Amino acid sequence: MQLKYVIVCVVFLFVGMTSNEETMSWNETQKLTWADFKASPDPNSDAVALTASGITFGYSVKTSGRRIIAFTTTVEAHFYPNKSWYIKDRGDDHILRHEQLHFDITELYVRKFKQQLERLVVNQNIKEQMAQVHTAINEALGKTQKEYDAQTNHSINVEAQRYWESFIADELKKLDEYKSQ
């Protein structure tokens, strides 16, 4: 079998936004284009494209004396243009849809994260609880990204690719109330 497409997805997971790195926030009406992939291709890679995306998470707590009485969070799915690349003469619409779905999977886990954070009750261990949820979400996101690439054979398995596109769209709809704005 001739290997037609080889894709690699790298997921960067950040806690908070501490960098001046250029980012694009996930938006359901704005899909990735090849112009968004600004890094130079890795000459030592067999990949056609590399997508860098991840979850940014920040929080603040309100205290009264030493007691935590409230907390707020921000959770977003980001794409990192200056760390994402593709080979111009090999990138096509099929591969771009595969890469977009990696970003959509990141958004799905942002929504799951927001849902879990919403269920937390203010207490003196809230920071540790948020950290635990954050760790678990990142692990689940990484596992799903790997499973997606394995089952689609990095987009080569067209039937599996279609399944994943439908599956992720359905999962996103289930958590629509948590979507990134």
Automatic annotation (TrEMBL):
Domain of life of the native organism: Bacteria
Pfam families: DUF922
Protein name according to UniProt: DUF922 domain-containing protein
Organism: Winogradskyella pulchriflava
